[in-house]
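Readers outside the structure-tokenisation community will struggle with the description of the input data as it stands. What matters is that the chain and its backbone geometry are given together, residue for residue. For illustration, here is how one protein appears when written out as sequence plus structure tokens:

…
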Amino acid sequence: MTLGTCGFLILFTTGFLTAATLRGGQEKREITQVVEGYARAAAGRDWAAARGYLEGAARANLEGALARQQEPPAAAVEDLSVQVKASSPSWALAELQVRTTQPGSQGPYSDLRLWRVYLLRQEEGWRIYRLEEEPLLPAGRGDARAPEKEMAACRQVITAYIQFTARGDSEAARYYLAGPAADAAAAGAAIAQGKLRFQTGPPDLQVLYYGDGQAVVGATYQVDLGQGPRLARVLFTLARINSNWRITRVEALEGVTEK
């Protein structure tokens, strides 16, 4: 092989790789623009604009959700990030994380959501055909103890949530929740499903995991569902959102629901 031939191959290969890289970069920009556009439209409750980014099951699910529930107040997007996890000229998978704030009865309500977003390229451009909400879960190595200041804040949030749930006040309880847990409370499907009416004594809390703005706390406390006192054991997963701890997952281990 001559030097001239080697040079031609190098230039050809470099040019091919550069073109492929440029196409991939353009795809990611287009995908990111669509996902961000949908997220901002949905947060602002601009459903006409939101529909324009959707098709198939994603659009049908939006229509069904709007028909089933009262529209919440518009939310301001505080932070938004999109990561394209996989893509081709025709299909893509992205991860969307969005942090919002909206008015609430107890002051501004902050929320954090994580979504897997599936897209197809159509003649008119990229469209979202499926949205899957992901739980807000801890990641990485943590500790089994937390700084006293953070533990006090978590205690306040968990105690308030238990007290409002015990009163059957799901709207007030929702203020201390974020992510899918907030939807469960709004739908009346929170822990105890509104049946927990009496709670005696403060909860005994134990930190099971703490690290990088996430925590898992075990709570033990006495409840009375009208059949006498009983011990409740519940796991709370929490995340720090806008400097405030919020409950992102509630799991009853024992004694909360009626037998």
